[in-house]
Write a structure and sequence with these properties.
By secondary structure, this protein is mainly α. The protein is built from 9 helices and 4 strands. The chain has a two-stranded antiparallel ribbon. Helix 5 packs across helix 6.
């Protein structure tokens, strides 16, 4: 007699999201501990600046000097605690389930490349030259766009504080995305980043994430089947 035993789902270690979380946090703490003048100098040297990369000559110069890497290093710099914590919360909410589906290496590529594309969009779109563009919002937007493209009807578990108790609830992913967009809008008009939110970066990151997920969907599906032992 042969009995079919359903394959057990293997849950691989999700390390990419915790690594990104730790790097974002440690980078912010390191910058915060610096004197004010040193902070400003570091942000201007490692953050992306608007008004550049508008011509082939500017691209060649950026490639020659290595300043093109600013599009990536800017992801790990933040203006204030609210800026950082907002990105960290949504990195965990969408990063962990996205990594479970697509794997750590795809998630790293999506975060870094999507964030760089988002920052590039802001560099080109912002008309005022030498405006500092920092933060992981574009990269987080790419994760959100990819997750929505892969699982448009998904629900995500969140912990809601109810008085002295914490309640675990399932919330539709589109609703959480709406909350995230609302927070970005609020931060546009209050706080130290008043008027400085680069919406072009968010939109570019979100669109890049959706396209990335659609292109990689077949590979992600194969990975999920292998993980389930099918």
């Amino acid at each position: 007699m042969f009995v079919t035993i359903p394959g057990r789902e293997r849950i691989p270690l999700r390390w990419a999201t915790p690594v990104l979380f730790s790097l974002l946090w440690l980078s912010f703490i390191t910058v915060e501990l610096m004197p004010g003048a040193e902070q400003r100098r570091l942000l201007m040297e490692w953050g992306a600046l608007s008004g550049g990369l508008a011509s082939p000559e500017a691209w060649f110069q950026a490639l020659r000097t290595g300043s093109l890497w600013r599009l990536v290093t800017a992801l790990f710099l933040h203006a204030d605690w609210a800026h950082l914590l907002g990105n960290l919360v949504f990195l965990l909410i969408f990063g962990l389930p996205a990594e479970r589906a697509m794997g750590p290496w795809r998630l790293l590529v999506l975060f870094l490349l999507g964030g760089a594309v988002a920052n590039l969009a802001a560099v080109i779109a912002i008309g005022t030259p030498d405006r500092l563009i920092i933060g992981a919002s574009g990269a987080v937007s790419a994760l959100i766009g990819a997750y929505l493209a892969l699982f448009p009807g998904a629900k995500l578990g969140v912990v809601v504080p109810l008085g002295l108790f914490l309640q675990f609830v399932k919330v539709p992913a589109p609703l959480l995305i709406g909350v995230w967009a609302l927070l970005q809008l609020v931060f546009t008009f209050i706080g130290p980043a008043f008027g400085a939110v680069a919406w072009s970066a968010h939109l570019a990151g979100f669109g890049f994430g959706g396209v990335f997920a659609l292109i990689a969907r077949a590979g992600i599906a194969r990975r999920m089947r292998r993980r389930r032992g099918l």
